[in-house]
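Reply to dn_fold:

You asked what the input looked like. This is it:
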Amino acid sequence: MFGFGKDDTNTLTMNQPHPDSLLDTGVQGVISKPLDRVDGPKKVTGTATYAAEYAIENIAHGVLVGANFGHGKIKAIHADAVKAIPGVIDVITDYDSFIRNSQQGGETEAPTQGVRTVDYFGEIVAIVVAESFEVARDAAKRLKVEYEPLDGTFDYEANKAEAEPAPDGLIKGHYDQGDFDQAFEGAAVKVDVTYTTPSQNSAAMEPHASIAVWEDGALTLYGAYQMPTSDAQQLAKALGISSSKVRIIARYIGGGFGAKLGIAPESVAAAIAAKRLNRPVKAVMLRQQVFDATVRRSNTEQRMRLGAEAGGRIVALGHESITSNLPDEDFFEPVGIGTHFLYAGENRRINHDVVRLNWTLSGSMRAPGEAVGMVGMECAMDELAEAIGMDPIDLRKVNDPQQDPELNVPYSSRNLTRSLEEGAKHFGWDQRRAPGQRREGDWLIGMGVAAACRSNQLQQSAAKVELHPDGSATVSSAMTDIGTGSYTIMAQIAAEILGLPVEKVTMALGDTNDPPAAGSGGSWGAASAGSAVYLAAERVREKLAKAMGVDTDSLTLKDGMAIGDNRSVPIGELVGKDGLSAIGEIRPGAQEKQFNQASYGAHFAEVGVNVITGEVRVRRMLGVFAAGRVLNAKTARSQCLGGMTFGIGTALTEELIHDPRTGKLVNHDLAEYHVPVNADVPQQEVHFLDERDIHANPIHAKGIGELGISGAAPAVVNAIYNATGIRVRDMPVTLDKLLDHLPAL
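and this is what came back:
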């Protein structure tokens, strides 16, 4: 348990289901409503302060310097000439303390450190500090790094035969069940195909940024970080100081998508520079450095083998992937994570191999595993349906299991079939034709479908709720909001339980001086930190009942009034001059082992493919999702819209290109790395199924942000096949992969 001093703490470990929720019995009527973001006015007026925007006196500006070679040993960094430039304060080359790689989210140890040996092009090796950003940037470009070249491994295709089994991590690296080889060989219908996806970048709007300020031997870092509680521990370990001496403040974050889960090179560099210079230092990564020296999503090569009976029941399911990462890194893209529980099939093989390359670090990017793994799984299901002569939705329904096919435990809730059926009805799936049969002028039109799934996780988190004499409340936690709506949904939870208008709740997030939280990542933020807010507000409610002299069960809180025992009293009159406060803490327990917890959904897409140019246009998309209680209909919808847009990028536009001679990223900026823009994104429709998951947490909500991505891309790819009859298995589906196969004019 976290340490909280003298505060009253209401702790819940999820060892039992939690069928009764105050969110079901509250009468304030704000939970689940599509309320506007409480932080919206600050963001649109430019008064929300992001990491690089804090006004700190006497601040110096640091610009990072990356290696301009792919693998080698640094012999010397010639700093004297750069130091002579007017305005330059210092050039710092702390070879042993600088971060070689960014850290993964949730880890508490220091990232890999030491940059004397450079392992990938762009690895950060120095920071130039000057009185202005412009001078620092100019000096950083002039800094000469002398090195001894080392033989590197830069070509995936040439080295993939050397791939090694992935270590067990979030899931097993290699998994076998039953007799896959025999079952596949004997199957009535077989599909054996390979799908590939390229490296990708999170491409968050805000670059990684840190301002480091030392005072009395303690560090305050204003940073763009998704998980401040664990990030502060990482930073402390990297600097060799006590974690009690590190505070991270991350009030607003301009997107993260996994790239800001753990600390990145600019944080340690800024901290070291500020300590050495005895003045605050700001370090903002250039856009190219964000691409080069944070994390990428690994490229994948996925061999899909599905064997089924004539009626569609899968008897053999194989999903074997090769991904890439640096030597000595344990992380691997968990490509088959959703495959483990999505469909039935008693004979299974889900393997992950890793080829070691001197490429930018591979790490978590939004929906690690499912976002790309579902491309292989759901496109292969489309191919199996065609081979059998079966509707793709019917095939999925036939293979919708009643319990986890590997762990033999029940699902806490599962609405895959219902999502598919509801989606088909809303989308007009019955109007779908055979491949290549629908044409409108120069455009071939097709429809595609794919399932969506995303594992649900609960992480230890805490929050404090304070009720003040004026009848207002404050909620504080080290939880963050990366654009997902955390400020709003947690205000709604507190308001619902305490019977307050949402505007009477003040939110304070993103500061490690507040109760620790798991932060934003893995789609666990709302359920974890939201449950902590729930528990804290529950305890405050109990205190109000005691102050009023009534049983908690007979107390009604609404519009700032406490009602019970035929009396109505303003809440502020019950709290005393010092107010009432409590801390709530949620912890995972036996429920996550006794039930498979996941969110489900279905994606539908309609595309047009130009028969002359091969251009693909997504005409419309529809998603149906079941993710427990929806806490805010507007922010939840926005999350799914963003996820569906991510899917368009995976299917059609996004591809990091590595130079096979040096490993350098060729397209390391937003001009050349093509994320979907407004013209690429069609009208998108989102529907939520009414669902509660009593095994997940006391608010009955499950992760939704990454569910919207999982399956979105293969729905588009399957629609392209339905439009053209051309099966493209190498992502993204660019026009050059279609042109030679389109029908003659």
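The chain has 18 helices and 29 strands.
Hope that clears it up.
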